[in-house]
Amino acid sequence: MDTDVQSFVVAHLRRRPAVVETGGFVVGIDPGTTSPYLNYATPLPGARPTARDVAALVAAFRERGLTPRLEFAPDAAPGVEPALREAGFATEAVHEYLVCAPDTFTPPPASAPLARTPSTDAEYAAVDAALSEAFGGGFAPSAEGAARLRRVQEGGGAVRFVRAPDGGCAGAATCSAPAEGTAEAAGVGTRPAFRGRGVAGAVTAAVTGALLARGARSVWLEYSGEGSRRVYERVGYRPQGTRLYLVLPD
């Protein structure tokens, strides 16, 4: 599964508005933001970069005013981590990822909150604002963020949300369009006032079911804690591997 996930990330980054390929790496760039979480690189499966390859990769980031950063499954490219460490890259995070397949997927119970697909600009803006609040303000809600969510939905992925009593968004999740037979669910978040009500499970199941119904062989995601892991396991996600996040300090 590591190679499938790594191949997916390569294909996913190649969909970005701007792409740089150098020395066995693919850099996905979103010109609308300098966020390192939207501008990052990943190696091709099996890549064995030289010091010159890594220097060219760093230059591709620096000349655009971006932080050199990578996300990848190390077991799919064992030669990459040592080369990056030698160049000074440090660990930002190590995340286990979970995978859901058609034979493990469990739809939500009938009592679960109703997950909807946003359709209007106001609904996409509400989803963007809710996810900003859910993740502690790590990013500010914006017109660009709402537009990015719409592109996910209209580009073959999925965005689902649960409506709050005031008409806004209680929580939401997204899932990329599939590539290499798999798709990534991400951005699963619930506003603090609505946690513990089944919102996260409902939206996770909704985006997962949508992509599996379209023919994806699997959907994968990363989790941030044991509480979220239990939510995902109830939907049918199972442990499969590890992803490594490396960054080059200034």
TrEMBL record:
InterPro entries on file: Acyl_CoA_acyltransferase, GNAT_dom
Protein name, as recorded: N-acetyltransferase domain-containing protein
Pfam hit, one: Acetyltransf_1
One GO molecular-function entry: acyltransferase activity, transferring groups other than amino-acyl groups
SUPFAM superfamilies, sorted: Acyl-CoA N-acyltransferases (Nat) (SSF55729)
Residues annotated as domain N-acetyltransferase: 113-250
Domain of life: Bacteria
